[in-house]
Amino acid sequence: MNVKNKEISNENNKTFATEFLLLGFQVSHGKRLFLFCLFLMVYFMIICGNLLIIILVSTSKNLHTPMYFFISQLSIRDILLPTGIVPNLLHILLNNGGIMTFVDCITQCYFFDILETFECFLLAVTTYDRYVAICNPLRYTSIMTSGRCVILTIFSFLFGISLIFIYTITIANLSFCRDNIIDHLFCDFVPLIDLACSDTFNIHLEIFLLGTPSVFIPVIIRPFIIIVVSYTYIVVTVLRIPSSTGRQKAFSTCSSHLTVVSLFYGTLFSIYVVPSKGLTLTVSKILSLLYTVFTPLINPIIYSLRNEDIKKAIQGTVHKLVI
After folding, report:
1. How far apart are CA 52 and CA 314, in angstroms?
2. Closest by alpha carbon to 258, among 216, 228, 278?
3. Distance CA 193, CA 195 (A)
4. In Å, what is the CA distance from 244 to each residue of 134, 203, 247, 248?
5. Residues 6+ apart with CB under 8 A from 278
6. Which of 160, 166, 289, 315 has the fewest other C-beta atoms within 10 Å?
């Protein structure tokens, strides 16, 4: 795909890129058509699966609890994240590359990182909910009130908006006068910073002080520590339960959530924590797809297959429709 880089000039006759070329997967036409059909089908399944969870939690009285409220919020996130990436990815696959303006690229970065940050903190909040339910069950209803659940969810979202906004403003003020080609599936802060030809000291200082999911780690590590500490207390409490039936029941309430946490952080760490110097660009793109596309697909399946309450809600809904 031949693309001329659109540029603007300043007083010193320097040129600055105003748009970027995303390469996507540089493979044969037949393989790109196959990937197009695959991602289109996956995207459709993501929407249907997560909408099912949201509808079940909203309509089934048995699911009107804090845990399922947080699960429904995760499902909303799992719809929004691929919606910001997959449609443009499909366009890139059809055209063997795609152009994004600077504003569009920054916007995609911004909302992508907001949703990643939101899930990091919402998973920590959900873990705290399980901690209170198992370690302090007598006070559970007084601690995890509906109002407090809403406040914790809003805080998780607003924290992501405010934190990522700092990086967005700083990166938006950078100058991009080098190659405008991004060999990736979507716009991310890392390749944008690599393309910048102006001083990036401020953005690296912000990364060091605060961190970001796309660049480095405090935003990932802080909620991860909360999750690890909470589950440590949960395990200790459960092991003190005298009956094996009681222990099994207590663990079963955490199994779906723990699976989702392991899947999310496992894929995220593989991209942003584990050294990636030995990874090819293709492997890096595939790993990116795991947490941006396939994790939102798998999450509702995990909740459906490993959660008896969700199964009963599905059976009840099907029974009502049949009758």
Report:
1. 9
2. 228
3. 5
4. 15, 52, 5, 6
5. none
6. 315
